[in-house]
From TrEMBL:
The lineage of its organism: Bacteria, Pseudomonadati, Pseudomonadota, Alphaproteobacteria, Sphingomonadales. InterPro entries: TonB/TolA_C, TonB_C. One of its GO terms (biological process) is transmembrane transport. This is TonB family protein. Keywords: Membrane, Transmembrane, Transmembrane helix. It comes from Sphingomonas kyeonggiensis. It comes from the Bacteria. It is a single-pass membrane protein.
Length: 237
């Protein structure tokens, strides 16, 4: 039985409190019926992204000797996977600086010279996550201005390859880093794979066959020998 209903019945049955009391009883009953249910307020979220705690960054001794001799400088984009303990368990170059020597030195340098605070979920539990960042190589004693070569090299050139049927294991486009010796590609690094090793190999073969090296007209800039390429697969009709 509704708890508000007996209040109105008692007021009507007694009769000695008068009309005002009867009305008051009915108003109280209606107020009790209309009172909204009290809802618990959810606790504030304790979620956070992973954080980098830098121990030390680049010193003059860290600069790749060959890159320094050729006056190569630029910015490398990377993606770091941090586990629930704050340990870096994977690092990939997601945007080339334009110079392979700088690209290849970046991840090992960052992993060894920094520590991480893991991400947390809403409950405050430490979880694994990805952390995107950039690292800029500046020639010691040189200008700190951005190198336009990096903007060109890190912007992925897109290729699409048609297949009669795309394997179910295909998860995402392949992100590649092509390295050149003069006009010819000499290496293809799969930075982020498709989820299928055979497709990754096809992506590299097609990229090396179809994509030429970057060239810059500015004589003051070192010619790039590396660039980023994204290859996606789709089913042909």
């Amino acid at each position: 039985m509704d708890m508000a209903r007996p209040v109105a019945i008692l007021a009507l049955a007694s009769g000695k409190w008068g009309k005002r009391s009867m009305v008051l009883g009915l108003v109280m009953a209606l107020a009790m019926q209309a009172a909204p249910a009290v809802q618990d307020t959810p606790p504030p979220s304790k979620a956070r992204k992973a954080k980098t705690r830098v121990i030390s960054w680049q010193t003059d001794d860290d600069y790749p000797a060959d890159a320094l001799r050729k006056h190569q400088a630029g910015t490398v984009k990377y993606r770091m996977t941090i586990d629930a303990t704050g340990k870096a368990i994977a690092c990939h170059v997601t945007g080339s600086s334009g110079y392979s020597a700088l690209d290849e030195k970046t991840c090992p340098l960052i992993v060894s010279n920094s520590r991480y605070e893991p991400a947390r979920d809403d409950a405050g539990k430490d979880i694994a996550s990805d952390l995107n960042g950039t690292f800029t190589w500046s020639i010691p004693g040189g200008a700190q201005t951005p190198n336009p070569v990096s903007a060109l090299a890190s912007d992925p050139l897109g290729l699409t390859i048609g297949l009669q049927a795309v394997p179910k294991s295909y998860a995402n486009p392949a992100l590649l880093r092509l390295v050149y010796a003069g006009e010819q590609p000499k290496a293809c690094a799969v930075e982020i794979g498709t989820g299928n090793a055979k497709l990754d190999a096809i992506a590299c073969d097609q990229a090396k066959a179809q994509v030429g090296p970057l060239k810059v007209d500015d004589a003051k800039l070192a010619q790039p020998d590396s660039r980023t390429v994204e290859v996606q697969f789709e089913a042909t009709k």
